[in-house]
């Protein structure tokens, strides 16, 4: 029997939080380790329970979700914790700031229950997940930035740059393997090396780096 994914639920709206707890509690592969109504409570909860995944609201009193995310992920006690941001907002700056804060995923609250459960599994497995609408808006945001940037000298090999570019296009490891005619295990190794070399936690940060460095250019497949 596999170990359940340990999840903390953070939202300042009691009904919304209760709904998430009820949904997650009904899933045999998930264990809700606690809930919090603001960022300060979230930090305390995560330090005490070290959950695998935190469902994090953004707009909260006392300490917002982005500041709480930064605090939690900087704590050695939460080294293995990943944050999945949930919000009703889709502002571009919020998406970028959530990723810069270390969030591994970003979903809007109207996501269907089955998609939320799948997202938790994806993030717990160390992958990144962005809602399709969020991904589109994020790329549009980068498209509006000044052109003429070039990728920095980051010590990556040509093959690693190819894999990074494929990651930035939203491809899974399986899809990258097929696209670049590589073995699945080889792609996983390349992604792992990219994370280590660039000092990132997950694929979400790789996507952001690819665009900010100029390696990936919106509209260029």
TrEMBL record:
Q: Which CDD domains match?
A: LuxR_C_like, REC_NarL-like
Q: Which PROSITE patterns does this one have?
A: HTH_LUXR_1 (PS00622), HTH_LUXR_2 (PS50043), RESPONSE_REGULATORY (PS50110)
Query: Where on the tree of life does the source sit, at the highest rank?
Result: Bacteria
Q: Which residues carry this modification: 4-aspartylphosphate?
A: 57
Outline the extent of the HTH luxR-type domain: 149-214
Q: Which organism is it from?
A: Nocardioides islandensis
Which Pfam family would be a valid example here? Answer: GerE
What GO annotations for molecular function exist for this entry? DNA binding
Protein keywords: DNA-binding, Phosphoprotein, Transcription, Transcription regulation
One GO BP annotation of this record? regulation of DNA-templated transcription
* Protein name according to UniProt: Response regulator transcription factor
